[in-house]
Design a protein that fits this description.
The chain has 159 residues and is mainly α. It has a domain at 2-104. It contains 2 helices and no strands.
């Protein structure tokens, strides 16, 4: 049994030696794992800062894009409104010309023709001295109004 025991003991001693090597290796890994852990924490912190900066840039870019898009939409809307107004004005002018040309001009001609004849007859009947008499009446009226205004102003001034 001693042979078995010594083989078993030799195996146990050898296993203990290998376990001691394994424990030494694991203990050597602990500082490396702590360094790795610290590196991961630092990488996480840097990544968080970079992510915040990226989010800020993305937000700024989105805001800038919104502003540019709104300006573009407003500009295009303004251009389209101007074009639409110009088209409507042109259409209204064309319709007015058509209405005046087709419907109102004949009526105006019918109304103007007798008035032109009357005006022509009135100027033919009028004598030259009658024309000067009308002008003299206007001048007299203006002169009397000026004298009355001057007299009223002179009367009110001292008071």
């Amino acid at each position: 049994m001693t042979a078995q025991l010594s083989a078993r003991e030799a195996l146990f001693v050898e296993s203990l030696g290998e376990m001691a090597d394994l424990v030494n290796r694991v203990e050597a890994l602990i500082p490396l794992l702590q360094d790795t852990r610290q590196s991961l924490i630092e990488a996480n912190t840097q990544l968080s800062h970079q992510l915040c900066a990226f989010e800020d840039r993305t937000t700024a870019l989105a805001e800038h894009t919104k502003v540019v898009a709104v300006k573009h939409i407003a500009q295009r809307t303004d251009e389209m409104t101007r074009r639409s107004v110009q088209i409507h004005v042109q259409e209204i002018q064309d319709a007015a010309r058509t209405a005046l040309g087709a419907e109102i001009q004949p009526t105006l001609r019918e109304l103007i023709a007798p008035l032109q004849r009357l005006a022509h007859l009135a100027t033919q009947r009028e004598r030259p001295w009658e024309r000067w008499q009308r002008w003299a009446e206007h001048v007299a009226t203006a002169a009397i109004a000026s004298v009355v205004t001057l007299g009223l102003a002179a009367w009110l001034w001292p008071q």
